[in-house]
Each structure stands twice: as C-alpha cells, then as structure tokens.
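TICKET: design request
STATUS: open
ATTACHED STRUCTURE:
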C-alpha cells in the first residue's frame, strides 16, 4: 500500500487540465528558492495522460508525476534532492493541496510573476492577488 501522505493532490492535474482548455502547453512554474524552479506540466500522451509531470527546471531533474486520481508518484530523483529543497517542494505541494488559490497567490506576491503564464504582474489587483485576472479565471473558475 502506498504512503497516504502522497494522496490528495488531484487538484494539480485538474487545474492544469482546465488551464489547458485555453493554452496549448499548460504548465505552472513555482520558484522554490533562487536556484530551484518547479515546473508542473500536463501530460497529454504517453503512459499517464491527464497526469501532472513535476520537474526541476535547472538541470531538467524529473521528480515524478501526480496521477489524475491525485497520487504523487515520486521518482528516485526526488529522494536524492538536497533536504532543504525537498522540504520546500513538500511545503509547496501541501499548500497547493490545502488551498490552491492562496499557494498560487503566494508565489506571485513573492516573485512578481504569474505562475501560470509567467508574465510580470503589473496592475494593482494582480499584484495584490498574486495572479493575473485571465489566468485566475481560467484556473479557478
């Protein structure tokens, strides 16, 4: 039986699927720290269509995927990451699981960019909410 802590992440592939109705290559980008950026991409083909692939941008380190049913299936790469980065990743995944809008907003407020489209947040409402109005509507409507 798999670890119950790895379940309950179905919102991640679901949000990517919704965003994918509007963009060709749906992905979310989260800065874990200045040296590590997490990219979540929707898998449309292959062994796990509809799942979310997770990777660290720097070096293309594939961490695993979140199934449509919400189970995070980490690769051996995830266990070999430095402990502080693993903790940042785990905290982000937990934040997304508990309150996706707040997790997305926290990234945008901290970095000044939308984690969905990557654009700089410019108008006051977007800066305050941490996500642009179009992306917010497409993901959370």
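STATUS: resolved
RESOLUTION: sequence designed for all positions
ATTACHED SEQUENCE:
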């Amino acid at each position: 039986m798999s670890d119950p802590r790895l379940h309950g992440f179905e919102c991640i592939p679901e949000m990517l699927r919704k965003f994918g109705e509007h963009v060709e290559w749906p992905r979310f980008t989260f800065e874990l720290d200045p040296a590590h950026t997490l990219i979540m991409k929707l898998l449309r083909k292959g062994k796990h269509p509809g799942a979310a692939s997770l990777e660290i941008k720097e070096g293309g380190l594939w961490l695993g995927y979140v199934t449509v049913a919400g189970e995070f299936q980490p690769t051996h790469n995830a266990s070999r990451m430095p402990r502080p980065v693993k903790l940042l990743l785990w905290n982000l995944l937990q934040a997304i699981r508990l309150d996706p809008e707040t997790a997305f907003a926290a990234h945008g407020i901290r970095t000044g960019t939308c984690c969905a489209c990557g654009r700089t947040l410019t108008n006051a409402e977007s800066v305050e909410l941490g996500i642009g109005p179009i992306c917010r509507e497409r993901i959370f409507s």
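CLOSING REMARK: The mean pLDDT is 93. The helical segments are 11-20, 76-79, 83-98, 100-111, 124-129, 133-140.
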